[in-house]
Specification:
The chain is α/β, with parallel strands linked by helices and about 625 residues long. It has 19 helices and 14 strands. It folds into 2 domains: about 200 residues, Rossmann fold (3-Layer(aba) Sandwich), CATH 3.40.50; about 240 residues, P-loop containing nucleotide triphosphate hydrolases (Rossmann fold). The strands form 2 sheets. A 7-stranded parallel sheet has the order 3-4-2-5-6-1-7, sandwiched between helices. β3, α4 and β4 form a beta-alpha-beta unit. About 0% of the residues have low confidence. Belongs to the DEAD box helicase family. DDX55/SPB4 subfamily.
Length: about 625
């Protein structure tokens, strides 16, 4: 057993809840499959056809399929004839209704799936009247496993997991497994675990028997980095992959930040000549990301796994938990936005004690500080040997070659634009914003590496001072066509519609056929009118100058007149205010006299001021 298996299996099979943290590739999957199967072997005779015994939840469908296949392999050697497990993942050819049919047909007792599909299966479709009717009985439920638990929380599945746990009995065993742990796991532990045992497996050096404190990567992994310019990225990547193929490293994975970048680089490498691209007849090229349909994703993983020599271009969808055997090299086009993904990416190689290499490509500038940042996270990182382009095309030559490929089909340039804009957008959302500042990103250099024909309109390009060296490819964009005839017809239709719309908004006056004498007369008339306007403008200017001169001569007299006028206005205002004040005093005195007269009238004969008697009433 591996260290994590030796530490986890005795506790988990002894009815203990566990939280397990160990480096990727250390054997965590068997750490929960073996206790589950041992309990299942003991209690399977007590289970009814609709009982659910165990549930395993993973963040991605690829990891769920991998765990399902491993469990199937072990069950095939069981001393009894157990029913097969049920796989619950998103599939365009299989709905939740189909999953329920297979559950009743196979009599499965162990479920493996992704959070959304599992919630639909267990909780049912929720309607206006409350919770829908789920599938399966859970009175004999025993074990719940959350694989890659921190990734489940990062993807926003906290509410879904709470909903799933609410359908399960509290008397159960629960295990959380991951290569990295986050602070959010405390909330999940409070919901789903009871007094858990935490198991942290650290990497030790076998030669000196000294513990490497909190190392997050396998001990046999040679983790390196290289500092290059953005414009040289594609050229250096292709040269590095070629060198590794010559050295006998046949399985390689390259991680890109976005799905659009994966699609574009994959398409370009498939169309570049053999002298430029690293793939050949013996080396196949594959792509994998979250926007590819599930059947094609499964086919790509299978083809990469079975190929003797292959290169996989992918996003972080293939970074966690997936066991891809015999991977020799892992390359990262740029640092991942989430630091935890770094250890998961490089963990696809050097698994289970094997040797492996990893290369991180960083740009010169503030990104160089990422090296010390990663080292502070207990991930050793050393500089890679310089990569020379003596026998390989440089950035300018490769850019020209890529542009020639793009000129064949306008669709390729659209893909290049999406790759650039999505990469810049992902760069702006990096967690280490103090190191990865989009204001310092060499967008023009990145566009050169991708071979763009022209820079797109982007808000990140406003006010840039580093775009002087950029040169657009001379292209007639009106005739630059799509290779697909249907797409080209759609473009032409849209162009004509926009042209007609502009003509309706801004109609042009039709040209009239006029004689030469009429045209000359019109020209003479316009020139004479222009001369008259100029003469009038000069005359008005001279008049204004005269008025200024007269005004300066009479300035003293006008000042005295203005002063007398202001004094006279002030005298009139004072007179009016005095009259108003005198009128107010007279009105107040008159009101006092009337009040005194009323008081006299109200007094009775005895001098009392009651003002009325009962006779008055």
């Amino acid at each position: 057993m591996t260290p994590v298996q030796a530490s986890t299996i005795p506790l988990f099979r002894a009815n203990k809840d566990v939280v397990v943290e160990a480096v990727t590739g250390s054997g965590k999957t068997l750490s929960f499959l073996i206790p589950i199967l041992e309990k299942y072997t003991q209690l399977h005779s007590q289970l009814q056809p609709s009982d659910v015994f165990s549930l395993i939840i993973t963040p991605t469908r690829e990891l769920a399929i991998q765990t399902y296949n491993q469990l199937q392999l072990i069950l095939s050697a069981a001393p009894f004839n157990p029913p097969p497990p049920l796989l619950l993942v998103s599939d365009p050819d299989s709905s939740v209704h189909d999953d329920r049919k297979r559950f009743s047909t196979l009599n499965s007792h162990i479920l493996i799936g992704t959070p959304g599909r599992v919630e639909e299966f267990i909780g049912g479709n929720k309607g206006t009247k409350g919770r829908g009717k789920g599938t399966g009985r859970y009175s004999n439920f025993e074990v719940l496993v959350l694989d890659e638990a921190d990734r489940l929380l990062d993807l926003g599945f906290m509410g879904v997991l709470k909903s799933i746990v609410s359908h399960l009995p509290k008397q159960r065993r629960t295990g959380l497994f991951s290569a990295t742990m986050t602070d959010q796991l405390g909330n999940l532990i409070a919901v789903g675990l009871r007094n858990p045992s935490k198991i942290v497996v650290k990497v030790t050096s076998k030669s000196r028997k000294q513990e490497i404190s909190e190392r997050r990567t396998p001990a046999e992994l040679h983790n390196t980095y290289i500092i290059i310019q953005q414009r040289d990225k594609l050229a250096y990547l292709l040269k590095f992959l070629k060198d590794q193929l010559l050295d006998g490293n046949n399985k390689m994975i390259v991680y890109f930040p976005t799905c659009a970048t994966v699609d574009y680089i994959y398409t370009i490498l498939k169309q570049l000549p053999g002298s430029y691209a690293p793939s050949s007849s013996s080396t196949t090229l594959h792509s994998l990301h979250g926007h590819i349909p599930p059947p094609k994703r499964t086919a790509a993983l299978t083809a990469f796994t079975n190929a003797p020599s292959a290169i996989l271009l992918c996003t972080d969808v293939a970074a966690r938990g997936i066991d891809l055997p015999d991977v020799d090299i892992v390359v990262q086009w740029e640092a991942p936005a989430d630091t935890r993904s770094f250890s998961h990416r490089v963990g696809r190689t050097a698994r289970a004690g094997a040797r492996g290499k990893a290369l991180l490509m960083l740009s010169a500038g503030s990104e160089e500080g990422y090296v010390e940042f990663v080292r502070g996270r207990q991930i050793p990182l050393t500089p890679h040997a310089p990569i020379t382009l003596t026998d390989a095309p440089d950035a300018d030559e490769l850019c020209g070659r890529v542009r020639s490929v793009l000129l064949r089909d306008r669709k390729l340039h659209d893909m290049a634009v999406r790759a650039l804009t999505s990469t810049v957008r992902a760069y702006s959302k990096h967690e280490q914003v103090f190191l990865f500042r989009v204001q310092q990103l060499d967008i023009a250099g990145l566009a050169t590496a991708l071979g763009l024909l022209r820079l797109p309109k982007m808000p990140e390009l406003r006010g840039r001072d580093d775009l002087a060296a950029w040169r657009d490819e001379p292209v007639d964009w009106d005739t630059y066509a799509y290779a697909d005839s249907a797409q080209e017809a759609k473009r032409l239709k849209k162009r004509d519609e926009s042209k007609n719309e502009n003509e309706l908004k801004h109609p042009s006056k039709p040209l009239k056929a006029e004689a030469w004498s009429v045209k000359k007369g019109n020209r003479d008339k316009r020139s004479s009118q222009k001369e008259k306007r100029e003469a009038k403008r000069r005359h008005d200017k001279a008049e204004r100058m005269k008025q200024r001169e007269v005004g300066s001569a009479d300035s003293a007299d006008s000042a005295e007149e203005k002063e007398e006028e202001q004094d006279w206005k002030a005298h009139i205002l004072e007179t009016r205010e005095a009259k108003k004040l005198k009128r107010r005093k007279l009105d107040k005195q008159q009101d006092k006299d009337e009040d005194a007269m009323e008081m006299d009238d109200d007094e009775d004969v005895n001098g009392n001021g009651n003002g009325f008697t009962f006779d008055d009433l």
